[in-house]
Protein backbone atom coordinates (compact mmCIF):
# COMPACT_ATOMS: atom_id res chain seq x y z
CA UNK A 1 0.00 0.00 0.00
CA UNK A 2 1.38 3.39 -0.99
CA UNK A 3 2.24 5.74 1.84
CA UNK A 4 0.62 9.15 1.86
CA UNK A 5 2.81 12.21 1.69
CA UNK A 6 3.38 14.86 4.34
CA UNK A 7 0.69 17.19 2.96
CA UNK A 8 -1.93 14.45 2.96
CA UNK A 9 -1.09 13.43 6.52
CA UNK A 10 -1.32 17.07 7.60
CA UNK A 11 -4.70 17.33 5.87
CA UNK A 12 -5.94 14.28 7.74
CA UNK A 13 -5.45 16.22 10.96
CA UNK A 14 -7.99 18.76 9.69
CA UNK A 15 -10.76 16.23 8.99
CA UNK A 16 -13.65 16.89 11.41
CA UNK A 17 -14.79 14.10 13.66
CA UNK A 18 -18.04 12.55 12.50
CA UNK A 19 -20.47 13.94 9.93
CA UNK A 20 -20.73 17.72 9.64
CA UNK A 21 -22.86 20.22 7.73
CA UNK A 22 -22.08 20.88 4.04
CA UNK A 23 -20.65 24.35 4.75
CA UNK A 24 -18.42 22.98 7.52
CA UNK A 25 -17.20 20.20 5.24
CA UNK A 26 -16.32 22.64 2.47
CA UNK A 27 -14.47 24.91 4.91
CA UNK A 28 -12.48 21.91 6.09
CA UNK A 29 -11.51 21.03 2.50
CA UNK A 30 -10.56 24.64 1.79
CA UNK A 31 -8.21 24.59 4.75
CA UNK A 32 -6.26 21.60 3.44
CA UNK A 33 -3.03 22.38 1.57
CA UNK A 34 -2.92 19.23 -0.56
CA UNK A 35 -1.93 20.31 -4.10
CA UNK A 36 -0.38 23.10 -6.13
CA UNK A 37 -3.17 23.00 -8.76
CA UNK A 38 -6.86 23.86 -8.51
CA UNK A 39 -8.29 20.55 -7.36
CA UNK A 40 -11.73 19.26 -8.34
CA UNK A 41 -14.14 18.78 -5.47
CA UNK A 42 -16.43 15.76 -5.71
CA UNK A 43 -19.23 14.27 -3.66
CA UNK A 44 -19.71 10.54 -3.12
CA UNK A 45 -23.32 9.70 -2.26
CA UNK A 46 -23.69 6.11 -1.01
CA UNK A 47 -27.30 5.10 -1.57
CA UNK A 48 -29.46 2.21 -0.45
CA UNK A 49 -30.32 1.04 -3.94
CA UNK A 50 -29.57 -2.09 -5.95
CA UNK A 51 -28.57 -0.91 -9.42
CA UNK A 52 -28.80 -4.49 -10.69
CA UNK A 53 -32.55 -3.92 -10.60
CA UNK A 54 -33.84 -1.99 -13.62
CA UNK A 55 -36.21 0.09 -11.48
CA UNK A 56 -33.46 1.12 -9.05
CA UNK A 57 -30.96 2.58 -11.47
CA UNK A 58 -30.19 6.23 -10.94
CA UNK A 59 -28.86 8.46 -13.70
CA UNK A 60 -29.39 12.01 -14.86
CA UNK A 61 -27.94 15.49 -15.00
CA UNK A 62 -28.10 18.51 -12.72
CA UNK A 63 -27.06 22.12 -13.26
CA UNK A 64 -24.69 23.48 -10.63
CA UNK A 65 -25.76 27.02 -9.63
CA UNK A 66 -22.14 28.18 -9.45
CA UNK A 67 -20.83 26.15 -12.40
CA UNK A 68 -18.38 23.26 -12.34
CA UNK A 69 -15.24 25.29 -12.93
CA UNK A 70 -14.33 22.94 -15.75
CA UNK A 71 -13.82 23.76 -19.42
CA UNK A 72 -16.18 21.46 -21.33
CA UNK A 73 -15.56 20.87 -25.03
CA UNK A 74 -18.81 20.00 -26.80
CA UNK A 75 -19.19 18.13 -30.08
CA UNK A 76 -22.51 18.35 -31.92
CA UNK A 77 -23.89 15.98 -34.54
CA UNK A 78 -26.14 18.23 -36.61
CA UNK A 79 -26.79 19.56 -40.09
CA UNK A 80 -28.38 22.64 -41.61
CA UNK A 81 -29.96 25.19 -39.29
CA UNK A 82 -29.21 23.07 -36.22
CA UNK A 83 -25.52 23.01 -37.12
CA UNK A 84 -25.53 26.78 -37.52
CA UNK A 85 -27.26 27.19 -34.14
CA UNK A 86 -24.67 24.91 -32.55
CA UNK A 87 -21.80 26.99 -33.93
CA UNK A 88 -23.41 30.21 -32.72
CA UNK A 89 -23.92 28.68 -29.26
CA UNK A 90 -20.20 27.94 -28.96
CA UNK A 91 -19.92 24.27 -29.89
CA UNK A 92 -16.29 23.22 -30.27
CA UNK A 93 -16.92 20.69 -33.05
CA UNK A 94 -19.95 20.50 -35.36
CA UNK A 95 -20.50 17.97 -38.10
CA UNK A 96 -21.79 14.56 -39.12
CA UNK A 97 -19.71 12.41 -41.47
CA UNK A 98 -16.42 14.20 -40.75
CA UNK A 99 -17.03 14.01 -37.00
CA UNK A 100 -17.87 10.31 -37.34
CA UNK A 101 -14.62 9.70 -39.22
CA UNK A 102 -12.63 11.51 -36.52
CA UNK A 103 -14.15 9.31 -33.83
CA UNK A 104 -13.51 6.14 -35.83
CA UNK A 105 -9.87 7.23 -36.07
CA UNK A 106 -9.76 7.44 -32.28
CA UNK A 107 -9.79 11.25 -32.12
CA UNK A 108 -11.82 12.46 -29.15
CA UNK A 109 -11.31 16.22 -28.98
CA UNK A 110 -14.41 16.76 -26.86
CA UNK A 111 -15.79 16.05 -23.37
CA UNK A 112 -19.51 15.84 -24.21
CA UNK A 113 -21.59 15.11 -27.29
CA UNK A 114 -24.97 16.41 -28.43
CA UNK A 115 -27.02 15.18 -31.38
CA UNK A 116 -30.24 16.15 -33.09
CA UNK A 117 -32.75 13.27 -33.28
CA UNK A 118 -32.36 12.92 -37.05
CA UNK A 119 -28.64 12.16 -36.60
CA UNK A 120 -29.07 9.29 -34.16
CA UNK A 121 -29.10 6.72 -36.97
CA UNK A 122 -25.46 7.60 -37.65
CA UNK A 123 -24.51 8.25 -34.04
CA UNK A 124 -26.01 4.94 -32.93
CA UNK A 125 -23.41 3.09 -34.97
CA UNK A 126 -20.74 4.71 -32.77
CA UNK A 127 -22.29 3.33 -29.59
CA UNK A 128 -19.53 0.79 -28.92
CA UNK A 129 -16.96 3.58 -29.12
CA UNK A 130 -18.80 6.43 -27.41
CA UNK A 131 -20.69 4.39 -24.80
CA UNK A 132 -17.73 3.14 -22.74
CA UNK A 133 -16.38 6.71 -22.62
CA UNK A 134 -19.67 8.14 -21.39
CA UNK A 135 -19.97 10.25 -24.56
CA UNK A 136 -23.06 8.72 -26.15
CA UNK A 137 -25.85 11.30 -26.60
CA UNK A 138 -28.91 10.32 -24.59
CA UNK A 139 -32.41 11.85 -24.68
CA UNK A 140 -32.81 11.25 -20.92
CA UNK A 141 -29.75 13.43 -20.33
CA UNK A 142 -30.93 16.15 -22.68
CA UNK A 143 -28.16 15.52 -25.19
CA UNK A 144 -30.43 14.24 -27.95
CA UNK A 145 -32.44 17.33 -28.78
CA UNK A 146 -33.44 19.77 -31.49
CA UNK A 147 -32.59 22.63 -29.12
CA UNK A 148 -28.85 22.18 -29.43
CA UNK A 149 -28.11 25.73 -28.29
CA UNK A 150 -29.73 25.10 -24.91
CA UNK A 151 -27.87 21.82 -24.45
CA UNK A 152 -24.53 23.44 -25.27
CA UNK A 153 -25.16 26.34 -22.90
CA UNK A 154 -26.05 23.98 -20.05
CA UNK A 155 -23.07 21.69 -20.62
CA UNK A 156 -20.62 24.57 -20.74
CA UNK A 157 -22.34 26.42 -17.89
CA UNK A 158 -22.06 23.73 -15.26
CA UNK A 159 -24.39 20.85 -15.94
CA UNK A 160 -22.91 17.62 -14.59
CA UNK A 161 -23.97 14.02 -14.87
CA UNK A 162 -24.64 11.70 -11.97
CA UNK A 163 -24.95 7.94 -12.12
CA UNK A 164 -25.04 5.32 -9.40
CA UNK A 165 -22.41 2.65 -9.93
CA UNK A 166 -22.81 -1.06 -9.19
CA UNK A 167 -22.22 -0.36 -5.50
CA UNK A 168 -24.99 2.24 -5.39
CA UNK A 169 -22.56 5.16 -5.13
CA UNK A 170 -22.96 8.40 -7.11
CA UNK A 171 -19.67 10.22 -7.74
CA UNK A 172 -20.50 13.80 -8.73
CA UNK A 173 -18.37 16.85 -9.52
CA UNK A 174 -19.20 19.77 -7.20
CA UNK A 175 -16.77 22.41 -8.43
CA UNK A 176 -13.20 23.55 -7.88
CA UNK A 177 -11.32 24.05 -4.65
CA UNK A 178 -10.80 27.70 -5.58
CA UNK A 179 -14.55 28.24 -5.17
CA UNK A 180 -15.77 29.77 -1.92
CA UNK A 181 -17.09 27.32 0.69
CA UNK A 182 -20.54 28.85 0.17
CA UNK A 183 -20.43 28.25 -3.61
CA UNK A 184 -19.33 24.66 -3.13
CA UNK A 185 -22.04 24.08 -0.52
CA UNK A 186 -24.68 25.53 -2.84
CA UNK A 187 -23.53 23.24 -5.65
CA UNK A 188 -23.60 20.32 -3.23
CA UNK A 189 -27.15 21.27 -2.29
CA UNK A 190 -28.30 21.26 -5.91
CA UNK A 191 -26.89 17.77 -6.38
CA UNK A 192 -28.29 16.44 -3.11
CA UNK A 193 -31.74 17.86 -3.82
CA UNK A 194 -31.70 16.16 -7.23
CA UNK A 195 -30.62 12.81 -5.78
CA UNK A 196 -33.38 13.02 -3.16
CA UNK A 197 -35.93 13.96 -5.82
CA UNK A 198 -34.94 11.02 -8.00
CA UNK A 199 -35.25 8.37 -5.29
CA UNK A 200 -36.49 5.15 -6.95
CA UNK A 201 -39.98 4.25 -5.74
CA UNK A 202 -38.87 0.64 -5.21
CA UNK A 203 -35.96 1.58 -2.95
CA UNK A 204 -36.42 0.05 0.51
CA UNK A 205 -34.85 1.00 3.83
CA UNK A 206 -32.48 3.92 4.31
CA UNK A 207 -31.99 5.73 1.00
CA UNK A 208 -28.96 7.96 1.71
CA UNK A 209 -26.52 5.91 3.77
CA UNK A 210 -23.54 8.26 3.78
CA UNK A 211 -22.05 11.23 1.96
CA UNK A 212 -18.38 12.13 1.63
CA UNK A 213 -16.81 15.13 -0.08
CA UNK A 214 -13.17 15.39 -1.07
CA UNK A 215 -10.76 17.25 -3.32
CA UNK A 216 -8.54 15.51 -5.89
CA UNK A 217 -5.63 14.98 -3.50
CA UNK A 218 -7.37 15.28 -0.13
CA UNK A 219 -8.84 12.88 2.41
CA UNK A 220 -12.62 12.68 2.53
CA UNK A 221 -14.87 14.66 4.86
CA UNK A 222 -18.16 13.08 5.93
CA UNK A 223 -21.29 15.22 5.47
CA UNK A 224 -24.42 14.82 7.57
CA UNK A 225 -27.19 13.43 5.29
CA UNK A 226 -29.80 14.87 7.69
CA UNK A 227 -28.95 18.42 6.57
CA UNK A 228 -31.38 18.88 3.69
CA UNK A 229 -31.77 22.66 3.62
CA UNK A 230 -29.75 25.85 4.14
CA UNK A 231 -26.72 24.04 2.76
CA UNK A 232 -24.49 27.10 2.71
CA UNK A 233 -25.70 28.52 6.01
CA UNK A 234 -23.71 28.55 9.23
CA UNK A 235 -26.99 27.85 11.02
CA UNK A 236 -26.99 24.41 9.39
CA UNK A 237 -24.02 23.47 11.59
CA UNK A 238 -26.15 23.48 14.72
Care to describe what's here?
The model has no long low-confidence stretch (mean pLDDT 92). 29% of the residues lie in helices and 20% in strands. It has eight helices and nine strands. It has a four-stranded antiparallel β-sheet with strand order 7-1-8-9, with helices on one face. It is of the alpha/beta class and 238 residues long. The two termini are 38 Å apart.
Q: What layout of secondary structure does this protein have?
A:
Elements (H helix, E strand, L loop, with lengths): L5 H7 L9 H9 L9 E8 L11 E5 L10 E4 L2 H9 L4 E3 L1 H8 L7 E4 L4 H5 L2 H4 L17 H10 L1 E5 L5 E8 L4 H17 L10 E8 L5 E3 L15
Parallel strand pairs: 3-4, 3-5
Antiparallel strand pairs: 1-7, 1-8, 2-6, 8-9
Helix pairs in contact: 2-8
Task: Please summarize what this structure is.
This protein is of the alpha/beta class. The chain has helices spanning 6-12, 22-30, 80-88, 97-104, 120-124, 127-130, 148-157, 181-197, and strands spanning 40-47, 59-63, 74-77, 93-95, 112-115, 159-163, 169-176, 208-215, 221-223. The longest helix is centred in the last third of the chain and has 17 residues, at 181-197.
